[in-house]
């Protein structure tokens, strides 16, 4: 492929508002969750943030973020050293951002691009993760306010 054609092709890749990201946002909205998108004050600028649950969701492209075992996570044949260094940097940055968020008390959820093909499975996984987080935040029954009347 000619360098100019390759440049135009690569420029078409979006970093936000991708089809998988929009699919996850629609799913969360349909399930009744309220969220913010691309919160810049958090490490990694998560794609979706649910402040009530202190959860940050990243919708990762399998190619760019190296989804292990995914058929899309290949290395291009041209300039493989360049690409491998780029992919390694992406993965390292992803881990660093997740660690920083977790240290701040946030739950980090990764949704892979290929997983969005089965949106029902994504719904189950998100509800499980967010439900567990919600239950952990609920006060225990039998608090001191009961019977103090």
Structure description:
By secondary structure, the chain is of the alpha+beta class. Helices cover 46% and strands 11% of the residues. The chain is built from five helices and four strands; from the N terminus they run H-H-E-E-E-H-H-E-H. It has helices at residues 3-11, 19-30, 62-65, 80-103, 119-137, and strands spanning 36-37, 48-50, 55-60, 107-112. A four-stranded mixed beta sheet has the order 1-2-3-4, sandwiched between helices. A hairpin with a 4-residue loop joins strand 2 (48-50) and strand 3. Helix 2 (19-30) packs across helix 5 (119-137). The radius of gyration is 19 Å and the shape is globular.
SSE diagram, text form:
Blueprint (H helix, E strand, L loop, with lengths): L2 H9 L7 H12 L5 E2 L10 E3 L4 E6 L1 H4 L14 H24 L3 E6 L6 H19 L12
Parallel strand pairs: 3-4
Antiparallel strand pairs: 1-2, 2-3
- Assign a percent range to the helix content: 40-55%
Order of helical and strand elements: HHEEEHHEH
Give me the count of strands.
4
* Biggest β-sheet description: 4 strands, mixed
What proportion strand? 5-15%
Contiguous helical run count: 5
Shape: globular
What's the rounded overall pLDDT mean? 87
Q: What is the spatial order of strands in the main beta sheet? A: 1-2-3-4
Distance between the ends: 78 Å
| Contiguous runs where pLDDT drops below 50 for at least 5 residues | 139-149
- Tell me the structural class: alpha+beta
If you compute it from the alpha carbons, what radius of gyration comes out, rounded to the nearest whole angstrom?
19 Å
